[in-house]
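We give the chain.
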Amino acid sequence: MRITLFDYGAGNLHSLAKALRGDGRSVVLETDPHAALATDVLVLPGVGAFAPAAAALAPARRAMRDAMRGGLPTLGICLGMQLMFDASDEGAGAGLGVFAGRVTPIHAPQLPQIGWNTLDEVTDPSIRAARLDTAYYANSFVCRPTDAAVVTAWSSHGGDRFPAAVRTARTLGVQFHPEKSSAPGVRFIQSFLQSM
């Protein structure tokens, strides 16, 4: 299985790449959004800010959205999940529009949210299989889907309830960082990959 980790050009992707590797799985870092689609699984990581990441995806926005809608297994983590939506209050640029909705700041007195938080109302099979009930977050923005039916797990911070995970077919976005969520987070990544 070839896994392509799209590199927006910000941050260290080492821990995520390590969590994705395994028997029969290779991980390739790719900065060209068109080339990133020649893969078995696409991963949009959670490192960076919305505007520059959206600009990096822009040349292949339609092709990437069509590939996801056509069944390309895709995992979006934190910022990667946010890029799957239409737009963000964090910065300019269009998201992929795989999920209808907007990214907004968390309505909480203390930001950013950094640390462990619980997941509730979990229906996502990959999260349930991993027995992941708490996860590590590092974010100030969250996704607000137009249709709550896409939400497969929830979390709350400072009284604001927001999607911890969204899914449509083989595209899954998570607001938390599984690669920083200890053994259950790694199990979640393995569960997602095995289901593909």
